[in-house]
Fold this sequence. Notes:
mainly alpha, 8 helices, globular
Amino acid sequence: xxxxxxxxxxxxxxxxxxxxxxxxxxxxxxxxxxxxxxxxxxxxxxxxxxxxxxxxxxxxxxxxxxxxxxxxxxxxxxxxxxxxxxxxxxxxxxxxxxxxxxxxxxxxxxxxxxxxxxxxxxxxxxxxxxxxxxxxxxxxxxxxxxxxxxxxxxxxxxxxxxxxxxxxxxxxxxxxxxxxxxxxxxxxxxxxxxxxxxxxxxxxxxxxxxxxx
Length: 213
């Protein structure tokens, strides 16, 4: 899936976008995540053990919203709609816009909900019909794959096959750095930049994608 330059460039752009949004969400939520549900799942277990019921409920709510977003994205992929990839990006852009507007009107909880839905939905952009596709808002799988391919390269396999997965990781880290800096500057209003990026990616994909639907 990452073999074509177009797919790799888009995947890295979306990974950077997810890192940007997650950096903002992490700071805003005081250690919870809007796209990294493994971290939230760990926090859920720890807070339950500690008896911090409110914090545990917050983590659970984020997980449920993320799953709902992922399900919504999959429904778009499995539909008969044309140009589903740019459509997914457009829906993501509108969700991020809704988040920015909600924050502007003093509704930070609604803003966070829209952000988490958008992050869940983003993971369907490369979804294969009937399959899980490519995760874009987390990089544990990419790092595992990079390690496996490095081992393959050391034993006679393709020498640079691991690089695309490492680039996904680097893109997410760079995005998180940018998101943290933007949050320190303008708080949750930094989501406006994420929404603009998603709109731009949707337009770019629509302009360059082949007619496959």
